[in-house]
Amino acid sequence: MEARALRMRPGTWLVWALVVFFMVNVLGVIGSVVLDSFGRTWFNGWAPQGYTSSNYSQAWDEFDLGQVMTVTFQVTLLVVAISLALGVPASYALARRDFPGKRLVMLLFVLPILVPPIAYGIPLATMLYKVHLAGSFTGVVAANLVPSVPFVVYTMTPFIEQIDPRLEQAARMCGAPTRSVLGRIIAPLLLPGMLAAGILVLVRTFGMFELTFLTAGPTSQTLVVSLFSAATSAGIRSSQNIDAMAVIYTGSMLVLLVIALRFVNPTQLVARSRD
Amino acid sequence: MTAATITQAPKLALRHRLAERGIDRTLLLILPGVIAIAALFCYPFIYGLGLSFQPAKGGVLGAYSAFFSDSFSEGTIWKTFSLAIPSALINVGLSVPISYRMRGDFRGKRLLLTLLVVPITLGTVLTAEGILEYFGPVGWFNLTLQKLGLVGAGHPVNLINDYWGVLFSLIISGFPFAFLLTHSYLSGIHPALEKAAATLGAGWWQRFRHVTFPLLLPGLLTTFCLTFVLGFSVFPSAIMVGDPDGKTHVISIEAYEQALQNFNYPQGCADAMIMTALMLLVIGLVMGIRALRFKGERIFYTGSTGGKG
């Protein structure tokens, strides 16, 4: 192994050096937040002067994180449930039927993924103000559905396409009514795909900043939005408390990520799998 | 009885004919999803477009002329492009050699892919918070530069609250994204194609230049579009690590301030429409390049890359 490593071409060395350099910087970015969250003060030097865990309890009280966490999980779980309920039937029809205007429907579902959230979030927030939903819990959930439903459709359609339609036909031939075809043939086969899509939506909604920021009010903020508000209105708050909150956010995100990676391939987090 | 058959026959036939074209009751399953997207995406967008033509003053196109006549708001276009284009080029440019080197299987590949996913899922807010500390005047990055003797002790490199901090944040969250996409495009190209070229005596550069790269190019253009969109809509990090009232006053900040700070909804919607139009223009251009034909032949191969054909 050692001898082989030394014989690597300069190009290979350069590529690995780039990867290592990138990773070191990412670790530095995350590490300085984590270290600072345990520090008493850190004005200069390599490490804080003394360590404490009181930043966490202070941050928890100061930013009312108990309420924020409750809202975050309520929003996220509702978005997952509703987007699965709307997206899975649509992807079933899209996978099984070829009909006039199918390309138009596909375009309709790709646009919310392609157009940046800020660009449609501002008109959406304006509309929500007009119907008095801005700042409410409902408004935040509705806004987060916009990218989630198409995301479920695009993750589930290839998944359904690879389930053999003859299984359903065979069940029908044996006299099963639609209800049992859905409940006993399709649903069990779809469960792994729905789990993967649901977890992906969970991770994305938990980290979705723009849409929640544009539509949330004081009582409907999710964790990432109150982190942003705390960080941008700093000055009166210690950076240690903000970093403690950032670490709480990162920790929850990493837990979700570890769960997600048990069920899905890393590349699926950015795009639907091509194989 | 005959009357019943006569009235029922055309009804059945119509249903049958529709079913032959793929229209049957299964299609009703699409409706909930389509209605949700129409109500929450299409309607607000059209509503916003209509609102942008009804400003308080200046007539139908008042909001648009207000945007383009004010040099501060018009300058956001240039500022946004000067962040989005370099970051997209860097992200795609770095992804190609790195994912080309890593196309095979090696120990710890899944771990590496997992590590690369982390910055994407952390999101821009956390990345920005980290950049503020890590690249700050007394952060580890500047301390390292001082230790290496690259900068003087009292003169740290100023990277935050500036263009560079935002560019770094776009690379930290955008590069893993570009890499994973490029990697999945590359693993879609069958290794037998390259092996065939190697059998015919092609060196690694020839194999890359004439076999892999042309097959990868359509995927790279898509990757470029997606990372460009990420950079073009940069928002939280431009506020947190950038200079939101100056060098990184990008178009999304302008639209946000108009709509939700000045409560000038028509202006905010007009800015959002300009933003969408510019973004679609760039994507259209790149996709147009992808579909370019030279003497009736596609320049870019967009067919199967599975190696079976």
Which descriptor suits the 3D outline of chain A?
A: globular
N- and C-termini, Cα separation of chain B: 58 Å
Structural class of chain B: mainly alpha
Share of residues in helices of chain B: over 70%
CATH class of chain B: Mainly Alpha
Features:
heterodimer, A: 275 residues, mainly alpha, two-stranded antiparallel ribbon, 2 strands, B: 309 residues, MetI-like fold, two-stranded antiparallel sheet, 1% strand, disordered N terminus
Describe the structure.
- The complex is a heterodimer of chains A (275) and B (309).
- Chain A is mainly α.
- Chain A has twelve helices and two strands, in the order H-H-E-E-H-H-H-H-H-H-H-H-H-H.
- Chain A has a two-stranded antiparallel sheet.
- In chain A, helix 9 (178-207) packs antiparallel against helix 12 (239-263) and helix 11 (223-232) packs antiparallel against helix 12 (239-263).
- The longest helix of chain A has 32 residues, at 65-96.
- Chain A starts with a helix and ends in a 12-residue tail after the last helix.
- The N and C termini of chain B lie far apart (58 Å).
- Chain B has helices spanning 2-20, 30-52, 62-69, 71-101, 109-134, 140-147, 163-187, 191-199, 204-232, 236-240, 251-261, 265-290, and strands at 293-294, 297-298.
- Chain B is mainly alpha-helical and 309 residues long.
- Residues 1-6 of chain B have low confidence and may be disordered.
- The longest helix of chain B is centred in the first third of the chain and has 31 residues, at 71-101.
- Helices cover 71% and strands 1% of the residues of chain B.
- In chain B, helix 11 runs antiparallel to helix 12 (265-290).
- Chain B has one domain: MetI-like (MetI-like fold), CATH 1.10.3720.
- The chains are: A mainly alpha (275), B mainly alpha (309).
